[in-house]
Amino acid sequence: MKPILEIKDLKVYYQLSKGFFQKSKQTIKAVNKVSLNIPKGQTIGLVGESGCGKTTLGRTILNLVQPTSGQIYFYKDQEKIDLTSLEAKKWKTLRKHIQMIFQDPYTSLNPRMTIRDIIAEPLVNLKIYPKKEINDKVEEIATRCNLHLSHLSRFPHTFSGGQRQRVAIARALILKPDFIVCDEPVSALDVSTQADILNLLTEFKLDFDLTYLFIGHDLSVVAYISDVIAVMYKGRLVETGPTDQIFTTPKHPYTQLLLSSVPAIDQRNLIQDQEITIFERNDLTLGEKSCPFLPRCPYGETICLNQEPELIPISSERFVACHLFSSSQFDQSTIAQPEERPHATTLSH
Amino acid sequence: MNRDQNPTLLQVKNLTVCFRAHGGTILAVNDLSFDLNKNQILGIVGESGSGKSVTMQNILGILPKNGIVDPNSQIKFNSSRYGEIDLLKLKPKEKKWFKLRGSEIGIIFQEPSAVLSPIYKIFAYFKEVIDLHLPGKSKTEIEQMAADMLAKVGIPNPSQCLAQYPFELSGGMKQRVLIALTLVTRPKLIIADEPTTALDVTVQAQILRLLKKLQQEFELSIIFISHNLGVIRQIADQVLVMYLGEAMELGLTEDVINRPLHPYTSLLVKAIPHFKSKGNPLVTMPGSIPNPLERPTGCPFHPRCPFVLNDVCSKQHPAFINYENGRKSRCFYLEKHKSRGVPVETHFRN
Q: A22, A227, B190, B264: which could form a disulfide with A42 (CB 3.0–4.6 Å)?
């Protein structure tokens, strides 16, 4: 499948000053050597806990955050454009192709603009259509997003969260983009409106031939909408693969922990009679090259402390960054099968 | 549930609360009744505007000043100090409140970092709570009590934690500290208002396990408020489903979530996405939660209900009546089927 976006060795580091006189500097590696291919027409779900760098990665694609190093290639009509070294002027034309839907519809809409102006703003800014046509375009997309035309002259504060998110989607779609970064678009919404927005996003994906990078922390939402899942932990990608494979046979110990923590709707899978031991070792001093998951990993070995695991293929579609699958130090026959592993109660509902 | 063995701890009867607002009166809670037995976890689930927070505020006596409670409402609490007491009859500044709130009724809030001020060390919080509710303890005694409780909630190094500031702790650790802080006075009833919503899913699982363990150890009764049905399914014995301030369904958690009676519960369960349902559009509820000032007449859910009966639902208000297995629900559609003796299965339809 043709890629639409290719991320190569992307690093985003933040410098934190510590102490009054800024004596020592600490580097926060928000995104650390991330490489990811996003095929056209697919939805990539990016999951991980808070602070793992998933939002930073999404924002870097749109140049809202400057990367420290690495490349992001965007493919447009046979052309390969490096987004990290693009001039501001060229970005303006590219914005037509790459858009974003933000998490909180209560802060992402300007309270002093009417809904009509908010949806029209990208068209006005980029001057793609003559002024006369703008109105028609706004009404066309608003209807598609199930917004009442009579509501277009209202201000955002008169709308509920779900309606606001529909306005945000209309604003992102009006330029007919190819690629949209959805940064937790439903996490601020109620369950009943969440389903509505997810249906809308799925519908538009087919109709407009879109590609999504869907960032989320609610695994059931991400699993529902994504074709491929990428799991991040402390700035690194630890596992990628097709959604059903990741959910039925998670390989990386972190993915296993993550999936076994999801509360099921039809059974008590989290609270059982037998005590569940949580692995947490605070006595380890991690080096520059240690596996970041080591303190919480039940299978840790010396190699994990001294050598950073690379993201390697374990089948044609799946990649895992874990020495369990790459090092001879682990005898594959002694590794417990997923069913027997402490964290590996896979989702079964 | 061993209803006979466990005495009732809290009884909410016909609770009705209004708010004066610009443009009219908002009915926040309408005729809500439920019992909470000792040693039981009751889950309250509902979307925004369902009245779950207002119910909690009434039990704690912290209703905002513009809230008006109907004089026929009752919240009876079985206090070990005062015997059976109607919490709604207490005035906001009454001394009894200070003996109840914090020592007999505890609360765990949603956002631990918003509750703990960054300028005090953890020890200061324990000192404040213990000085207020268990006066006359020396500093070493307080330290000992606090450290014991922190160890119980799974803080690895309790004495070190007492000397730390809240910002030095992770979100999960802060929530553990808050749970310890609530439990140190040994309350009988705990109100947990979305205690895991701000946490990561792995930490959420740990906190849920911890709460269940502590509930058994201290024989607590917990009202667990959440919008997440999955979380409620894990921890609650009974669940109360609320919509626009009204109880829609009440019953054992397994019954209500796996075999919902009320169309609202049924749609709520079906709206939860899952990777196995990928490719099929999610079941949605038509319309959206109405503006509280434009409350629908009759059944509050009727404008969005796929089972609406044209002649009654918009005109009359359905009663909260009993169904099999101690379940209760409020729906004309269910009533109609019950009177015919037909089993109603809203979850198999549409």
A: A227
